[in-house]
Please model this.
Amino acid sequence: MPCTTILVGKKASADGSTLMARNEDSGAGHFMPKKWIAVRPEDQPEEYKSVLSRFSVTLPKDPLPYSACPNAVADEGIWGEAGINAAGVAMTETETITSNARVLGADPLVKDGIGEEDLLTIVLPYIRSAREGVQRLGSLVEKYGTYEMNGIGFQDVDEIWWFESVGGHHWIAKRVPDDAYVVGPNQLGIDRFDFTDAYGAQKAHLCTADLISWIKANNLNLSAGEEELSACSDWEVRPSLGSHDDADHVYNTPRAWFMERYLNPHAADWDGTDRHFGPESDTLPWSMVPEHKITVEDVKYLLSSHYQGTPYDPYAKTDIEGKRGKYRPIGVNRTNFLSLTQIRPGFPKEIAAVQWLAFASNVFNAFVPFYTNVTDTPAYIRDGGVNATTDNFYWTNRIIGALADAHWSECANLIERYQNSVGAKARQMLRESDEAFEKKFGTASGKKPEEKKVQKFLMKHNEQMADMARKETQEVLDKVLFAASSGMKNQYSRSDA
Model:
């Protein structure tokens, strides 16, 4: 899927949380309605079979409960995409990435291997740390192969790891530095790799066991240096394993440029004639230390962005030198959903994990947080299907976006007020729910006799959050619909009087 990813280490975030967020965008020519569900152990299959390939696998018998964002219509499989399990480990899959003909010739993709349809379901319920997620997924890719190149994130309260498949059976993974963030469009992103660590202490680098020998056997190392890979601690990944297509300069690198430009405005000349990094730069860093601590709101803004403040904004009133709409926006029309998984330190483990959700085009929607330690989710975000309806969060936001986009100048202020209102109320409600939880259960909760009471409490607060989102969303739909109707071509000012 064409997507955009942001990963934030615990020392780079405003409250010490690890943050992992990704847009899922549908392919061109169709939309993909999504929902948010809680998967109980009894709902998890033991014999898993994919729909799009002939892949099948027997899964372990002890799955953890977890949340997921699957397709609302399961004709192409589950596509779980993003969630958090009961151990407080999150997974986001996938950022479809690119490689080159040399890599794919050396290790061809596997037609009936695993893919985005499968990954969350066969990995997330069985891991208890972000590192374990990399290791389990890596073993599955090595054994069964994959039919697509993908980037996958794993997160716990202390660490975030980023996994990238390389060809059909190989992979590399790197730990996000605690004080840094990572941005990822649809291309292989890891820029530097430490083989001495990956084949040694494995503190921040992991990879397929035979990666070095495979690279050597297929002459894939394009590094100008003479150093043996086994002794190399700073290998440049992208020239050897990544893509160098002209299409990247329109579709991918501009997205990374805009996000890094926003979070590090003074780190480089991003816009001048002698700029260090431009929208088409091939050397944009994989990770950077931000100039200020990153908030949930920063992430939402970036994953909703359309090159605001630059000549490339498709909503700009004037077209400067033909640059308007030149690059693929992050906040694109065919976004299915945005998920941000937040693992909060210092909270009781029952409420430490929160999943923020927004559906449809992010330019026009709002971000809402939910507790994931539950056995069911609110109907407003759980139910829905192929038909448009205002009884569903995804479809209501899809309608709002289609109306507001066509009437940007009349509706932009309505959308901004909606987003700010939902954001403020969501923050207040989450804070009050946290306080109510600790008052009711204390910090030593989690004993088995209390589990049902805890989950009942959290589901009640999730319902209240969904009710708030529904009310606010319906109100902005009413306003956007009126504004759009007032601008119809057949309008006439004189009434019957």
Observations:
- The mean pLDDT is 95.
- The chain has two domains: 3-345, 412-486.
